[in-house]
Design a protein that fits this description.
This protein has two domains: 212 residues, Vaccinia Virus protein VP39 (Rossmann fold, 3-Layer(aba) Sandwich), CATH 3.40.50; 114 residues, no CATH class. Strand 1, helix 2 and strand 2 form a beta-alpha-beta unit. It has 362 residues and is an alpha/beta fold. The relative contact order is 0.15. Helices cover 50% and strands 9% of the residues. The termini are far apart. Helix 4 packs across helix 5 and helix 16 runs parallel beside helix 18. The protein is globular. A seven-stranded mixed beta sheet has the order 3-2-1-4-5-7-6, with helices on both faces.
Length: 362
């Protein structure tokens, strides 16, 4: 049977701004992270003078991240924005951009994209399972919640005023109904998310969880500066100040300068750490990898970090469905900073994850 989706995610859901704060990134740090759709390693490299190894068990996700890197390096930033699909363009223009980029791609990547030209109709970011699912819901949500009211959120320059407007004008009962349907397990599974990521979903009520976090999504940060918010509702990034750091003028300049400090690996994060020299990494951006792993695999990852990390170091784990406890034999090595996690959750631009910052002690 032909696969319906080329990859699960068109845009990384982790807020790189939160990663920087949680990991306390400093010049010279050696970071390993999940590649996902590319925004985390690209944004972190554009804003931090660090060495990054980005890993993913999904080769198409690696290909997507490398395509975004190529676009950022070899197109003008505004062209890259349109090519990737953050903003509207024609399929013809995207194909012209791809022809320009193709000579900079690995041969296998070039062949992959040539065999799947449909991604250039709307842009690669729109071809993923999750983004296609959300795009079908966004127009329903805008119609029910009132598009004009949602658009008004972009007019505020003060978070408190934005939150006050939201609380006065958004109909919570309608909103809760949307979430109860959109994230019902029988609807969401396979359509919106790979079942592998939902292996622990029985531990949580997804609809209630996402509903309870939605107010922060709309009000904890300025909507005008939040590209997650804009893309979720309008399927594009509306304002320049919300563009990912690697496509803003200064960030793009620094990304081009530091591009040789980013490497991609098609393997699990545990495997890459085990293969690397002991002490290679002192910072670990783990995303919500625990949602995808069994308990045994998760414990193996933490023990590998505890044994092989350069110390002192820091790690950030995200989760939606289930948080495993730190194994007892790692109690003196990995320390969870709960107060920092609670603080960062409030300001995260995509606050649908719980955050677990960890200190790696010597």
């Amino acid at each position: 049977m032909k696969k319906k989706f080329l990859y699960n995610f068109g845009m990384s859901q982790d807020d790189a701004r939160t990663e920087r704060k949680a990991l306390e990134l400093e010049p010279g740090d050696r970071l390993i992270c999940l590649a996902s759709a590319g925004e985390v390693p690209l944004n972190l490299l554009a804003t931090s003078d660090v060495q990054i190894d980005a890993v993913d068990i999904s080769l198409p996700q690696i290909r997507l991240a490398r395509l975004k890197l190529a676009a950022a390096l070899h197109l003008e930033p505004r062209e890259a924005v349109r090519f990737i699909g953050y903003r509207k363009s024609s399929a013809e223009e995207r194909m012209r951009f791809f022809q320009q980029l193709s000579r900079h791609l690995e041969t296998s990547d070039k062949t992959f994209w040539e065999q799947n030209p449909v991604v250039f109709e709307k842009g690669p970011v729109h071809a993923a399972r999750f983004e296609r699912y959300i795009s079908r819901l966004s127009w329903i949500g805008l119609a029910i919640l009132n598009r004009r009211k949602i658009t008004r959120l972009f007019e505020f320059d003060d978070v408190a005023a934005q939150r006050q407007y939201f609380d006065r004008n958004i109909h919570y009962r309608k909103l809760k109904w949307i979430f109860s349907v959109a994230f019902h397990p029988k609807i969401y599974k396979n359509r919106g998310m790979d079942t592998a990521a939902l292996r622990h979903s029985s531990e949580s009520d997804m609809a209630s969880f996402f509903f309870n976090r939605f107010r922060n999504f709309c009000t904890a940060t300025l909507a005008r500066e939040n590209y997650f918010f804009q893309f979720t509702f309008f399927n594009r990034i509306l304002f320049d100040e919300a563009l990912p750091d690697y496509l803003k003028e200064e960030g793009n300049r620094l990304l081009r300068k530091r591009a040789n400090r980013l490497a991609f690996y098609n393997e699990s994060i545990t495997s890459r750490i085990k293969k690397s020299p002991e002490g290679r990494y002192n910072k670990f951006a783990l995303s919500n990898v625990g949602d995808w792993l069994s308990q045994e695999e998760y414990i193996d990852l933490l023990q590998t970090i505890g044994q092989r990390a350069a110390k002192p170091g820091r790690a950030l784990l995200r989760y939606i469905h289930f948080a495993y406890a730190i194994p007892g034999d790692l109690a003196d090595t990995l320390r969870i900073d709960q107060s920092l996690g609670a603080q960062l959750e409030v300001s995260d631009r995509y606050p649908f994850y719980s955050l677990v910052p960890m200190r790696i002690l010597g």
